[in-house]
C-alpha cells in the first residue's frame, strides 16, 4: 500500500538515512543538522510522531524514540498541549545560516483562450479557485490589520513587509528545505515579476545567455528575450533535463539556467539527484546562477517531498516561489530567496519603494502562515487534488486502457501520451466538445524537434459540479 504523503501534519523536509536501529539514528542526525544549521529555528513546532512517521514511511516508535532522545539531549522540548518544539539554542539563526555552503516560480498562468468560452476547462496552471479559504483569510486579515503598525500603511521597504519575510523564511526552511534569512527575501507580485527583475539584473551583469528547459512557458522565454538574453534549450530525455550538458565547451556563454527541478513543467518529473548535482557543480565552476521555479512544490501525493535545489547551494541558486498555486493567483504574492550578493541589485532594480505588493495582503498572508492556517489549507487541497488525480487516472484507464499517463506523483496536471501525429486532431475534437485542452507541443521550445504527442491535462481548475462532465468530455476525445 502506497504511503499517503498528502495527509498529515505540518510539512517538514528531512532526509534521514539508514535502516533498522540506524534509521532512528539517521533521523536524529537529520534533526540535529536542521537545528544546528538554523533551518529549524527555536520554537518551531514539529509534526506529531504519527504524522512524521507516515511522511517518512517509518514506524511511529522510530520517530517517538528519536524525539524522546533529542528532548533528553536538549535539542527539543515536549510539553503536554504544546507538542514537540525546537528548544532554545545558543547558536543564533543568522550565524547558523552563514555556516551553510559558502560557494555557491509563481504566477504561472497558461493563457490560450479559445474563440468562445469553453464548457469545461482542463488547461494546466490554475488551482481550484472555489476552494480559496475565505473565512480563514478574513480571520487572518482582521487580526493582521488590528496588529499592524501605522508605518505599515506607508510606502514600505522594497523587499516587502518584514513580518511576511520572517515567517516565509521559517516556512520555506521547514517545508521546502530552503536556507533563507528575511533580509535575503524579496517579495514580488508573481513569478513573472520576479523573473523580469532577474532578467534585468543578469543583463546588467553582462550575462548574454540563460539556458532553459526543452519544455516550458513561452511567456517566460519572451520575457527573457525582451531583457536582451538568448535562451538556448538544454537537451531532454526520459530522465529529464540533461544538466550535465552545461559543462560542455559549446555552452560556455551561459550565465544562468532556468529550471523547474521539483516538478518539471509540463512533463511532470522531478530532476534526478545526479542532474541536480550537475547543475550546482556547473554554477560553482562557472560562477553562474540557477533560477529555481518552485511553482507547486507543496503538492505531492505518493512520493516523498523533493526538497528545493536551493538547499544545495544558497549562494548559487535564486529560489522563486509563489502563492498562486497553493492559494490563488489573484493574490499576486510571490517571493525570491536571493544569494546575498544579489539582494542590493534586485532591490535597486525593483525600485526604492514597494510599488506592487499590497501591504495589507502581505500582513494577512504573514498571519495566515504563522497561525498554521496555510498548512491546514495545503493539506486539505492535497487531498482534494489527489482525489481528482485518482479519478482522472481511473476514467482514462476505463475509456482508453492503452493511454499512458505520466507526471502524476505531484502537482496539478497530468500528461496523457497520444499516438504519433494525433495531438492536433484530439485538440480539435476537444474544442468541438467544449473542452479547453492544451497539447505538450504548445510548451516545446522553438529549437527543440518534435518527438512526442501528448495532452497536458490540468485537474485543479474545474468546479466540483463541472468535474465529472469534464472527465466525460475528455474520455470522449481520447483515441
Kindly state the number of beta strands.
16
| Range of helix content | 25-40%
Distance between the termini: 32 Å
Strand line-up of the largest beta sheet: 4-11-10-9-8-5
Q: What class, by secondary structure content? A: alpha/beta
Largest sheet: 6 strands, mixed
Shape: globular
Low-confidence blocks of residues: 1-8, 90-114
Strand content: 5-15%
**What order do the SSEs take from the amino end to the carboxyl end, as H and E?**
HHHEEHEHHEHEHEEEHEEEHHHEEHEEEH
Tally of individual helices: 14
The whole-angstrom Rg is: 22 Å
User: Roughly what is the average pLDDT, rounded to an integer?
Assistant: 88
Would you write up a description of this structure?
- This protein is α/β, with parallel strands linked by helices.
- Helix content is 38%, strand content 13%.
- The chain has helices at 21-36, 49-56, 60-73, 93-98, 134-147, 162-176, 191-204, 218-226, 273-286, 343-350, 359-370, 373-399, 423-432, 464-477, and strands spanning 76-79, 83-86, 120-121, 185-188, 209-211, 236-237, 240-241, 254-259, 289-293, 317-322, 334-337, 405-406, 413-418, 435-436, 438-439, 453-458.
- The chain has a 6-stranded mixed β-sheet, with helices on both faces.
- The chain starts with 20 loop residues before the first helix and ends with a helix.
- The relative contact order is 0.15.
- Mean pLDDT is 88; it is low at 1-8 and 90-114.
